[in-house]
């Protein structure tokens, strides 16, 4: 190796390492949902047409509920969720019900029959199910005004559980700002 080649090699190695690190970062999957971490943002189609983004609700407490029409506990929990929504919506509560991989017509029929008025979105490819590590239906995430996941519950919530968790979100009782 000549003197010039020896001087160029370390520079090329540093540049190559930086390029590899950049490519690995760009190709890595988005961060999964974790308690105490920011809730992963998403944009999903609503039943009413336009996409709904989680980031649009920053500054408000959000209950994210993963559910399906075939899930008996989900169906039992949904009317309680409607009651809690009606009780707390004036205080800023947002409920995003993310349907897991069902078609819009099936979901629409369920929503209309139940008279539910909170926001329903469709995860038809199951991308958010994976990203939020959903292994049971229903699964609920409670996101503080700061966008951080403050609590989660696998399985159905009772009305009092739901109210208690929402009250904590509204009072920033999970340590959020």
Strand content: 15-25%
| Distance from first to last alpha carbon | 59 Å
Largest β sheet strand count, sense and barrel closure: 5 strands, mixed
Query: Which structural class is indicated by helix and strand composition?
Result: alpha/beta
What is the name of the CATH class of the largest domain? Alpha Beta
Q: What is the number of beta strands?
A: 7
Q: Which spans have pLDDT < 50 for at least 5 consecutive residues?
A: 21-26
* Biggest sheet, spatial arrangement of strands: 5-4-3-6-7
Averaged pLDDT: 87
Based on the structure given, which CATH architecture of the largest domain is correct? Answer: 3-Layer(aba) Sandwich
How much helix is in the residues? 25-40%
Sum up the overall morphology in one term.
globular
Query: For the CA atoms, what is the radius of gyration?
Result: 21 Å
- Assigned CATH superfamily of the largest domain: Glutaredoxin
CATH topology of the largest domain: Glutaredoxin
How do the helices and strands follow one another from N- to C-terminus? HEEEHEHEHEEH
**Number of helices in the DSSP assignment:** 5
Indicate how many domains the architecture comprises.
2
Question: What does the model show?
Answer:
The chain has 177 residues and is an alpha/beta fold. It has two domains: 1-30; 33-170, Glutaredoxin. It is built from five helices and seven strands, in the order αβββαβαβαββα. It has helices spanning 3-27, 72-88, 104-114, 127-131, 159-170, and strands at residues 43-45, 51-53, 62-67, 94-100, 119-123, 139-143, 149-154. A five-stranded mixed β-sheet has the order 5-4-3-6-7. Strands 1-2 form a two-stranded antiparallel sheet. Strand 3, helix 2 (72-88) and strand 4 form a beta-alpha-beta unit. Helix 2 (72-88) packs across helix 5. The longest helix has 25 residues, at 3-27. The chain starts with a helix and ends in a 7-residue tail after the last helix. Residues 21-26 have low confidence and may be disordered.
């Amino acid at each position: 190796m000549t003197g010039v080649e020896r001087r160029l090699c370390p520079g090329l190695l540093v540049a190559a390492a930086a390029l590899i690190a950049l490519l690995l970062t760009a190709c890595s999957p988005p961060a999964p949902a974790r308690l105490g971490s920011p809730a992963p943002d998403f944009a999903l189609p609503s039943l009413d047409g336009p996409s709904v983004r989680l980031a649009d609700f920053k500054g408000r407490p959000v209950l994210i509920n993963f559910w399906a029409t075939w899930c008996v506990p989900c169906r039992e929990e949904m009317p309680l969720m409607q009651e809690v929504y009606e009780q707390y919506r004036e205080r800023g509560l947002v409920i995003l019900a993310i349907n897991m991989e069902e078609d819009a017509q099936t979901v629409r029929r369920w929503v209309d029959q139940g008279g539910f008025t909170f926001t329903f979105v469709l995860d038809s490819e199951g991308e958010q199910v994976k990203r939020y590590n959903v292994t049971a239906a229903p699964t609920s995430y409670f996101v503080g005004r700061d966008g951080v996941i403050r609590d989660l519950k696998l399985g159905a919530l009772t009305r009092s559980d739901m109210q208690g968790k929402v009250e904590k979100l509204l009072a920033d009782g999970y340590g959020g700002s």
